[in-house]
């Protein structure tokens, strides 16, 4: 019997190894799987490469993970915000490596990994420092930059509802990077607020099929959300 429901976050994250590339869903706090991030902090894996849209806020969620010093590199679009001081301090001290990727390119590089696309050309970034050292090509009179997929060992994402087969639905914009990250990782671990009976989720509403999910963990919904974020 297929049952992807994990009894605890600790068990779901147990196989993450040192040196892993970990995709973490979320757009700022929206859709960020803070309980899974806290679990990863407790789990202790180090020398990690993190893929996320941002580089953390204040000292919660992703920023709390960065503060442990166990992240070697972060690949993201928006590393600096008003409260991104944890990342700022690490970066200026030379304690973390940054790969800056335009947001559309980030999403497409992740999607390409899941879709089996070897590489793709995009006009975004051409003529800037972001294209330095990359192959370029003129196509139909326009200049393009070759970009490669981003693969991950693990994806940590947040969904709204899941069943024991791992099928997932999301809550509005909290979906963001979750579906494409699930397809680009060797193992996807999702937190959900509700575990549905098998067959009760309308197949037409399933966004991430269970094929792409290894574990789901049920977490409670709170008024303010985990780690101080507003519930999403």
Give a description of the structure.
With 232 residues, the protein is an alpha/beta fold. The chain has 6 helices and 13 strands. The strands form 3 sheets. Strands 4-3-2-1-8-11-13 form a 7-stranded parallel β-sheet. Helix 5 packs across helix 6. The chain is globular, with a radius of gyration of 18 Å. Belongs to the 3-oxoacid CoA-transferase subunit A family. It comes from Eoetvoesiella caeni. One of its GO terms (molecular function) is CoA-transferase activity.
The coarse silhouette is: globular
The number of E-state strands comes to 13
Order of helices and strands: HEHEHEHEHEEEEEEHEEE
Counted up, domains total: 1
CATH topology: Glutaconate Coenzyme A-transferase
Number of helix segments?
A: 6
The order of strands across the largest sheet is 4-3-2-1-8-11-13
Beta-strand residue fraction: 15-25%
Kindly report how far apart the N and C termini lie: 32 Å
Radius of gyration: 18 Å
Calculate the mean pLDDT score and round it.
Answer: 94
How does CATH name the architecture?
3-Layer(aba) Sandwich
What structural class is derived from the secondary structure elements?
alpha/beta
> How much helicity do the residues have?
10-25%
The largest β sheet comes out as: 7 strands, parallel
CATH homologous superfamily descriptor: Glutaconate Coenzyme A-transferase
CATH class: Alpha Beta
Low-confidence blocks of residues: none
Brief overview, please?
The chain is α/β, with parallel strands linked by helices and about 230 residues long. The protein contains 6 helices and 13 strands. Helices cover about 20% and strands about 25% of the residues.
